TrEMBL record:
The lineage of its organism: Bacteria, Bacillati, Actinomycetota, Actinomycetes, Kitasatosporales. Keywords: Amino-acid biosynthesis, Cytoplasm, One-carbon metabolism, Pyridoxal phosphate, Transferase. It is an enzyme of class 2 (transferase). This is Serine hydroxymethyltransferase. Its main location: cytoplasm. Its cofactor is pyridoxal 5'-phosphate. Pathway: Amino-acid biosynthesis; glycine biosynthesis; glycine from L-serine: step 1/1; One-carbon metabolism; tetrahydrofolate interconversion. Homodimer. Residues 29-403 form the Serine hydroxymethyltransferase-like domain. The record marks H249 as: Plays an important role in substrate specificity. HAMAP family: SHMT.
Length: 431
Protein backbone atom coordinates (compact mmCIF):
# COMPACT_ATOMS: atom_id res chain seq x y z
CA UNK A 1 0.00 0.00 0.00
CA UNK A 2 1.47 3.35 -1.04
CA UNK A 3 2.26 5.96 1.57
CA UNK A 4 0.31 9.21 1.15
CA UNK A 5 2.10 11.48 -1.31
CA UNK A 6 4.05 8.63 -2.94
CA UNK A 7 3.44 6.15 -5.73
CA UNK A 8 4.05 2.41 -5.88
CA UNK A 9 7.18 3.20 -7.89
CA UNK A 10 8.61 5.48 -5.20
CA UNK A 11 7.67 2.95 -2.55
CA UNK A 12 9.68 0.36 -4.43
CA UNK A 13 12.69 2.69 -4.65
CA UNK A 14 12.59 3.54 -0.94
CA UNK A 15 11.97 -0.01 0.26
CA UNK A 16 15.71 -0.78 0.53
CA UNK A 17 16.17 2.26 2.78
CA UNK A 18 13.22 1.23 4.96
CA UNK A 19 14.64 -2.28 5.30
CA UNK A 20 18.15 -1.01 6.03
CA UNK A 21 16.86 1.50 8.56
CA UNK A 22 15.07 -1.24 10.47
CA UNK A 23 18.30 -3.24 10.52
CA UNK A 24 20.61 -0.33 11.37
CA UNK A 25 21.33 -1.39 14.92
CA UNK A 26 21.90 -5.01 13.98
CA UNK A 27 24.43 -3.80 11.42
CA UNK A 28 26.18 -1.72 14.07
CA UNK A 29 26.24 -4.64 16.47
CA UNK A 30 27.84 -6.88 13.85
CA UNK A 31 30.38 -4.33 12.62
CA UNK A 32 31.30 -2.65 15.90
CA UNK A 33 30.06 -4.59 18.92
CA UNK A 34 32.14 -2.41 21.24
CA UNK A 35 30.34 0.80 20.33
CA UNK A 36 27.02 -1.02 20.07
CA UNK A 37 27.57 -2.06 23.65
CA UNK A 38 28.12 1.55 24.68
CA UNK A 39 24.84 2.56 23.01
CA UNK A 40 22.93 -0.22 24.72
CA UNK A 41 24.48 0.62 28.08
CA UNK A 42 23.50 4.27 27.68
CA UNK A 43 19.97 3.22 26.73
CA UNK A 44 19.85 1.15 29.91
CA UNK A 45 21.18 4.07 31.97
CA UNK A 46 18.56 6.44 30.61
CA UNK A 47 15.66 4.04 31.04
CA UNK A 48 16.60 2.47 34.40
CA UNK A 49 17.03 5.72 36.29
CA UNK A 50 15.50 9.16 36.81
CA UNK A 51 16.67 11.82 34.37
CA UNK A 52 16.30 15.08 36.28
CA UNK A 53 18.93 17.14 34.46
CA UNK A 54 17.07 20.31 33.49
CA UNK A 55 18.85 20.61 30.14
CA UNK A 56 17.85 17.13 28.94
CA UNK A 57 14.79 15.45 27.50
CA UNK A 58 13.79 12.40 25.46
CA UNK A 59 13.48 13.17 21.75
CA UNK A 60 10.57 11.44 20.07
CA UNK A 61 11.05 8.39 17.82
CA UNK A 62 10.17 10.61 14.84
CA UNK A 63 12.94 13.06 15.75
CA UNK A 64 15.40 10.17 16.17
CA UNK A 65 14.39 8.80 12.78
CA UNK A 66 15.22 12.12 11.11
CA UNK A 67 18.56 12.23 12.92
CA UNK A 68 19.46 8.78 11.61
CA UNK A 69 18.44 9.55 8.04
CA UNK A 70 20.36 9.91 4.74
CA UNK A 71 20.22 13.69 5.19
CA UNK A 72 23.39 13.28 7.26
CA UNK A 73 25.16 12.56 3.96
CA UNK A 74 24.33 15.91 2.35
CA UNK A 75 26.68 18.87 2.41
CA UNK A 76 24.57 22.03 2.13
CA UNK A 77 26.65 25.14 2.83
CA UNK A 78 24.48 28.21 2.42
CA UNK A 79 20.75 28.64 2.62
CA UNK A 80 17.77 27.26 0.65
CA UNK A 81 18.08 28.34 -2.95
CA UNK A 82 21.61 29.65 -2.37
CA UNK A 83 23.79 26.60 -1.71
CA UNK A 84 27.44 26.13 -2.54
CA UNK A 85 26.92 22.46 -3.51
CA UNK A 86 24.60 20.88 -5.99
CA UNK A 87 21.89 18.38 -5.21
CA UNK A 88 20.34 20.40 -2.39
CA UNK A 89 16.82 20.69 -3.75
CA UNK A 90 15.34 18.22 -1.27
CA UNK A 91 17.25 19.34 1.79
CA UNK A 92 16.12 22.85 0.89
CA UNK A 93 12.57 21.63 1.40
CA UNK A 94 13.46 20.25 4.82
CA UNK A 95 15.05 23.52 5.94
CA UNK A 96 12.21 25.65 4.56
CA UNK A 97 9.70 23.48 6.45
CA UNK A 98 11.63 23.95 9.70
CA UNK A 99 11.84 27.73 9.16
CA UNK A 100 8.15 28.06 8.31
CA UNK A 101 7.14 25.99 11.32
CA UNK A 102 9.33 28.05 13.66
CA UNK A 103 7.94 31.34 12.37
CA UNK A 104 4.36 30.12 12.66
CA UNK A 105 4.85 28.60 16.10
CA UNK A 106 6.61 31.57 17.69
CA UNK A 107 5.09 34.43 15.69
CA UNK A 108 8.39 35.76 14.36
CA UNK A 109 9.32 37.09 10.92
CA UNK A 110 12.52 35.08 10.54
CA UNK A 111 14.14 31.95 11.93
CA UNK A 112 17.56 30.45 11.43
CA UNK A 113 17.62 26.72 12.21
CA UNK A 114 21.27 26.01 11.36
CA UNK A 115 23.14 26.69 14.65
CA UNK A 116 24.92 23.61 15.92
CA UNK A 117 24.02 24.40 19.55
CA UNK A 118 22.56 27.04 21.81
CA UNK A 119 26.04 28.45 22.38
CA UNK A 120 26.52 28.69 18.61
CA UNK A 121 23.24 30.58 18.38
CA UNK A 122 24.35 33.06 21.04
CA UNK A 123 27.71 33.48 19.34
CA UNK A 124 25.95 34.30 16.07
CA UNK A 125 23.68 36.83 17.78
CA UNK A 126 26.70 38.60 19.27
CA UNK A 127 28.50 38.48 15.92
CA UNK A 128 25.49 40.02 14.17
CA UNK A 129 25.00 42.89 16.62
CA UNK A 130 28.33 43.58 18.32
CA UNK A 131 32.03 44.14 17.69
CA UNK A 132 34.78 43.00 20.07
CA UNK A 133 35.10 45.32 23.05
CA UNK A 134 31.41 46.28 23.17
CA UNK A 135 29.77 46.38 26.60
CA UNK A 136 27.09 43.79 27.32
CA UNK A 137 24.91 43.28 30.40
CA UNK A 138 23.95 39.72 31.36
CA UNK A 139 23.02 37.78 34.47
CA UNK A 140 26.20 37.11 36.46
CA UNK A 141 27.28 33.49 36.45
CA UNK A 142 26.95 32.94 40.24
CA UNK A 143 23.35 34.18 40.02
CA UNK A 144 22.41 31.87 37.15
CA UNK A 145 24.08 33.18 34.02
CA UNK A 146 25.41 30.89 31.28
CA UNK A 147 29.02 30.53 30.13
CA UNK A 148 28.11 32.52 27.00
CA UNK A 149 27.02 35.40 29.24
CA UNK A 150 30.52 36.58 29.97
CA UNK A 151 32.54 33.75 31.46
CA UNK A 152 36.26 34.55 31.15
CA UNK A 153 36.78 30.97 29.97
CA UNK A 154 34.33 31.53 27.07
CA UNK A 155 34.54 33.56 23.87
CA UNK A 156 31.97 35.96 25.31
CA UNK A 157 34.11 36.97 28.25
CA UNK A 158 37.24 37.26 26.12
CA UNK A 159 35.77 39.31 23.28
CA UNK A 160 33.27 41.58 25.04
CA UNK A 161 33.12 43.72 28.17
CA UNK A 162 30.45 42.02 30.27
CA UNK A 163 28.85 43.49 33.38
CA UNK A 164 26.69 41.18 35.48
CA UNK A 165 23.35 41.93 37.08
CA UNK A 166 21.93 39.66 39.74
CA UNK A 167 19.07 38.75 42.03
CA UNK A 168 17.82 40.27 45.26
CA UNK A 169 19.25 38.55 48.37
CA UNK A 170 15.90 38.17 50.12
CA UNK A 171 13.83 36.80 47.27
CA UNK A 172 16.24 35.40 44.69
CA UNK A 173 14.32 37.35 42.01
CA UNK A 174 16.00 39.49 39.37
CA UNK A 175 16.83 42.94 40.69
CA UNK A 176 15.42 45.12 37.92
CA UNK A 177 16.41 48.31 39.74
CA UNK A 178 20.01 47.15 39.81
CA UNK A 179 19.75 46.20 36.12
CA UNK A 180 18.50 49.68 35.19
CA UNK A 181 21.16 51.42 37.26
CA UNK A 182 23.83 49.27 35.67
CA UNK A 183 22.50 50.02 32.21
CA UNK A 184 22.47 53.79 32.85
CA UNK A 185 26.02 53.60 34.18
CA UNK A 186 27.59 51.29 31.59
CA UNK A 187 25.56 52.18 28.45
CA UNK A 188 25.76 48.68 26.97
CA UNK A 189 25.44 47.85 23.29
CA UNK A 190 23.30 44.86 24.23
CA UNK A 191 21.46 43.40 27.21
CA UNK A 192 21.02 39.64 27.56
CA UNK A 193 17.91 38.29 29.32
CA UNK A 194 17.98 34.63 30.24
CA UNK A 195 19.85 32.21 32.43
CA UNK A 196 20.77 28.62 33.01
CA UNK A 197 19.30 28.24 36.51
CA UNK A 198 16.70 30.97 37.14
CA UNK A 199 13.38 29.24 37.87
CA UNK A 200 11.00 32.17 37.46
CA UNK A 201 9.45 33.89 34.45
CA UNK A 202 11.44 36.86 33.22
CA UNK A 203 9.76 40.25 32.81
CA UNK A 204 10.63 40.80 29.16
CA UNK A 205 8.69 44.06 29.03
CA UNK A 206 10.89 45.48 31.80
CA UNK A 207 14.02 44.38 29.95
CA UNK A 208 12.71 45.98 26.76
CA UNK A 209 12.01 49.27 28.53
CA UNK A 210 15.52 49.38 30.02
CA UNK A 211 17.12 48.43 26.69
CA UNK A 212 15.21 51.19 24.91
CA UNK A 213 16.22 53.71 27.57
CA UNK A 214 19.92 53.15 26.83
CA UNK A 215 19.44 52.32 23.13
CA UNK A 216 20.71 48.78 23.51
CA UNK A 217 19.79 45.60 21.68
CA UNK A 218 17.82 43.06 23.70
CA UNK A 219 18.99 39.48 23.23
CA UNK A 220 16.94 36.79 24.96
CA UNK A 221 18.58 33.45 25.69
CA UNK A 222 15.53 31.19 25.94
CA UNK A 223 17.47 27.93 25.78
CA UNK A 224 15.60 26.44 28.73
CA UNK A 225 12.12 27.83 28.20
CA UNK A 226 11.41 27.94 24.44
CA UNK A 227 9.55 24.62 24.56
CA UNK A 228 7.33 25.95 27.33
CA UNK A 229 6.71 29.05 25.18
CA UNK A 230 5.73 26.79 22.27
CA UNK A 231 3.23 24.99 24.49
CA UNK A 232 1.76 28.18 25.94
CA UNK A 233 3.15 27.45 29.40
CA UNK A 234 5.56 30.41 29.55
CA UNK A 235 5.44 34.00 28.24
CA UNK A 236 6.98 34.59 24.84
CA UNK A 237 10.04 36.83 24.52
CA UNK A 238 9.50 37.28 20.77
CA UNK A 239 7.40 40.49 20.97
CA UNK A 240 10.07 42.18 23.10
CA UNK A 241 13.45 40.91 21.93
CA UNK A 242 15.54 41.97 18.98
CA UNK A 243 16.93 38.43 18.84
CA UNK A 244 15.89 35.22 20.62
CA UNK A 245 18.41 32.39 20.89
CA UNK A 246 17.56 28.91 22.09
CA UNK A 247 18.37 25.24 21.98
CA UNK A 248 16.15 22.74 20.23
CA UNK A 249 16.49 20.03 22.86
CA UNK A 250 15.60 20.71 26.51
CA UNK A 251 11.90 21.63 26.77
CA UNK A 252 11.38 21.78 22.99
CA UNK A 253 12.16 18.03 22.93
CA UNK A 254 14.00 18.06 19.63
CA UNK A 255 17.53 17.20 18.52
CA UNK A 256 20.65 18.74 20.04
CA UNK A 257 20.93 22.01 18.14
CA UNK A 258 20.19 25.72 18.20
CA UNK A 259 17.71 28.17 16.75
CA UNK A 260 17.58 31.94 16.34
CA UNK A 261 14.38 34.01 16.00
CA UNK A 262 14.32 37.67 14.92
CA UNK A 263 12.49 40.32 12.93
CA UNK A 264 12.90 40.87 9.21
CA UNK A 265 15.20 43.89 9.73
CA UNK A 266 17.90 41.69 11.31
CA UNK A 267 17.34 38.55 9.23
CA UNK A 268 20.21 39.07 6.79
CA UNK A 269 22.66 39.99 9.56
CA UNK A 270 21.73 36.93 11.60
CA UNK A 271 22.02 34.61 8.60
CA UNK A 272 25.45 35.98 7.66
CA UNK A 273 26.58 35.64 11.28
CA UNK A 274 25.64 31.95 11.29
CA UNK A 275 27.03 31.21 7.83
CA UNK A 276 29.67 31.94 6.74
CA UNK A 277 30.94 33.88 9.79
CA UNK A 278 30.69 31.36 12.66
CA UNK A 279 29.78 28.04 11.03
CA UNK A 280 30.28 25.93 7.94
CA UNK A 281 27.73 23.61 6.40
CA UNK A 282 24.61 22.87 8.41
CA UNK A 283 23.89 19.41 9.74
CA UNK A 284 20.87 18.72 7.56
CA UNK A 285 19.75 15.66 9.51
CA UNK A 286 19.56 17.88 12.61
CA UNK A 287 17.77 20.62 10.68
CA UNK A 288 15.18 18.09 9.53
CA UNK A 289 14.83 16.71 13.05
CA UNK A 290 14.29 20.27 14.28
CA UNK A 291 11.48 20.58 11.76
CA UNK A 292 9.93 17.40 13.12
CA UNK A 293 10.15 18.70 16.69
CA UNK A 294 8.61 22.05 15.72
CA UNK A 295 5.74 20.21 14.05
CA UNK A 296 5.20 18.18 17.23
CA UNK A 297 5.35 21.35 19.35
CA UNK A 298 2.45 22.87 17.41
CA UNK A 299 0.04 20.12 18.52
CA UNK A 300 -2.49 20.18 21.39
CA UNK A 301 -0.72 17.16 22.89
CA UNK A 302 2.50 19.16 23.22
CA UNK A 303 0.66 22.07 24.85
CA UNK A 304 -0.75 19.63 27.41
CA UNK A 305 2.75 18.26 27.93
CA UNK A 306 4.28 21.72 28.47
CA UNK A 307 1.71 22.64 31.11
CA UNK A 308 2.23 19.29 32.85
CA UNK A 309 5.99 19.94 32.92
CA UNK A 310 5.36 23.12 34.91
CA UNK A 311 2.79 21.51 37.20
CA UNK A 312 5.21 18.68 37.90
CA UNK A 313 8.03 21.11 38.68
CA UNK A 314 5.88 23.07 41.11
CA UNK A 315 4.80 19.90 42.92
CA UNK A 316 8.38 18.62 43.01
CA UNK A 317 9.64 21.94 44.40
CA UNK A 318 7.12 21.84 47.23
CA UNK A 319 7.92 18.22 48.01
CA UNK A 320 11.67 18.93 48.07
CA UNK A 321 11.09 21.65 50.65
CA UNK A 322 9.60 18.99 52.90
CA UNK A 323 12.88 17.06 52.54
CA UNK A 324 14.93 19.96 53.93
CA UNK A 325 15.85 21.00 50.39
CA UNK A 326 14.38 24.50 50.10
CA UNK A 327 13.88 25.64 46.50
CA UNK A 328 15.37 29.00 45.60
CA UNK A 329 12.83 31.82 45.09
CA UNK A 330 10.37 29.66 47.04
CA UNK A 331 9.39 27.58 44.00
CA UNK A 332 9.34 27.72 40.22
CA UNK A 333 7.35 28.99 37.23
CA UNK A 334 9.09 26.69 34.76
CA UNK A 335 10.50 23.18 34.44
CA UNK A 336 13.55 24.08 36.50
CA UNK A 337 14.24 23.95 40.25
CA UNK A 338 17.33 24.97 42.18
CA UNK A 339 17.53 23.81 45.78
CA UNK A 340 19.93 24.31 48.68
CA UNK A 341 21.51 21.14 50.11
CA UNK A 342 23.51 22.80 52.87
CA UNK A 343 20.92 21.93 55.56
CA UNK A 344 21.91 18.28 55.00
CA UNK A 345 25.56 19.20 55.48
CA UNK A 346 26.30 18.52 51.81
CA UNK A 347 27.86 20.34 48.89
CA UNK A 348 26.28 20.32 45.48
CA UNK A 349 29.01 18.03 44.18
CA UNK A 350 28.54 15.49 46.98
CA UNK A 351 24.77 15.66 46.53
CA UNK A 352 25.11 14.94 42.81
CA UNK A 353 27.33 11.96 43.55
CA UNK A 354 24.96 10.45 46.10
CA UNK A 355 22.06 10.82 43.70
CA UNK A 356 24.07 9.28 40.86
CA UNK A 357 24.74 6.24 43.05
CA UNK A 358 20.96 5.92 43.43
CA UNK A 359 20.37 6.17 39.64
CA UNK A 360 19.15 9.76 39.89
CA UNK A 361 20.80 12.15 37.45
CA UNK A 362 20.81 15.85 38.36
CA UNK A 363 23.27 18.76 38.41
CA UNK A 364 25.13 20.69 41.05
CA UNK A 365 24.83 24.48 40.76
CA UNK A 366 26.02 27.64 42.40
CA UNK A 367 23.55 29.61 44.47
CA UNK A 368 23.64 33.42 44.79
CA UNK A 369 24.60 33.01 48.46
CA UNK A 370 27.71 30.97 47.66
CA UNK A 371 31.06 32.76 48.12
CA UNK A 372 32.62 34.02 44.90
CA UNK A 373 34.95 32.77 43.60
CA UNK A 374 34.44 29.32 45.04
CA UNK A 375 35.37 25.78 44.28
CA UNK A 376 32.36 24.52 46.19
CA UNK A 377 28.67 25.14 45.52
CA UNK A 378 25.70 24.47 47.74
CA UNK A 379 22.94 23.93 45.23
CA UNK A 380 21.43 21.27 43.01
CA UNK A 381 19.49 21.89 39.80
CA UNK A 382 16.65 19.64 38.71
CA UNK A 383 14.18 19.66 35.83
CA UNK A 384 10.95 17.85 35.02
CA UNK A 385 10.97 17.86 31.21
CA UNK A 386 12.29 14.32 30.75
CA UNK A 387 10.24 12.57 33.44
CA UNK A 388 7.11 14.32 32.12
CA UNK A 389 7.87 12.99 28.64
CA UNK A 390 7.86 9.54 30.26
CA UNK A 391 4.32 10.17 31.51
CA UNK A 392 4.99 10.90 35.17
CA UNK A 393 2.62 13.25 36.95
CA UNK A 394 2.07 14.83 40.37
CA UNK A 395 2.07 11.65 42.45
CA UNK A 396 5.38 10.58 40.93
CA UNK A 397 6.88 13.98 41.77
CA UNK A 398 6.04 13.46 45.42
CA UNK A 399 7.73 10.07 45.28
CA UNK A 400 10.78 11.45 43.45
CA UNK A 401 11.31 14.12 46.11
CA UNK A 402 11.34 11.44 48.80
CA UNK A 403 13.77 9.33 46.80
CA UNK A 404 16.09 12.32 46.33
CA UNK A 405 15.91 13.10 50.04
CA UNK A 406 16.71 9.49 50.99
CA UNK A 407 19.57 9.34 48.51
CA UNK A 408 21.08 12.52 49.90
CA UNK A 409 20.86 11.14 53.43
CA UNK A 410 22.74 8.03 52.32
CA UNK A 411 19.91 5.57 52.91
CA UNK A 412 20.13 2.15 51.30
CA UNK A 413 17.83 0.56 48.75
CA UNK A 414 17.04 3.78 46.88
CA UNK A 415 18.52 2.63 43.55
CA UNK A 416 16.20 -0.38 43.48
CA UNK A 417 13.12 1.77 44.05
CA UNK A 418 14.29 4.27 41.42
CA UNK A 419 14.70 1.49 38.87
CA UNK A 420 11.21 0.19 39.67
CA UNK A 421 9.70 3.65 39.18
CA UNK A 422 11.57 4.23 35.93
CA UNK A 423 10.55 0.81 34.60
CA UNK A 424 6.90 1.75 34.99
CA UNK A 425 7.40 4.78 32.69
CA UNK A 426 9.57 3.71 29.73
CA UNK A 427 10.35 6.64 27.40
CA UNK A 428 10.22 4.35 24.38
CA UNK A 429 8.05 1.31 23.97
CA UNK A 430 10.61 -0.34 21.73
CA UNK A 431 14.33 -0.15 20.94
Amino acid sequence: MAVAGTTPETDARTAPYAAAHAADFDALRRQDPELAGVLLAEYERQTAGLQLIAAENFASPAVLAALGSPLTNKYAEGYPGQRHHGGCELVDLAERLAIERACALFGCAHANVQPYSGSSAVLAAYAALLVPGDTVLAMSLPHGGHLTHGSPANFSGRWFDFAGYGVRPGTGLIDYDQLRDLALTRHPKAIVAGSTSYPRHIDYAAFREIADEVEAYLIVDAAHTLGLVAGGAAPSPVPYADVVCATTHKTLRGPRGGIILCGSELAARIDRAVFPFTQGGPQMHTVAATGVALGEAATPAFAEYAHQVVTNAQVLAGALAAQELPPQTGGTDTHLITADVSALDLTGLLARGRCAAARISLDKCALPSDPVPTGSVSGIRLGTAAVTTQGMRESEMERIAKLVGRALRGEGGVAVEVAELAAAFPPYTRL
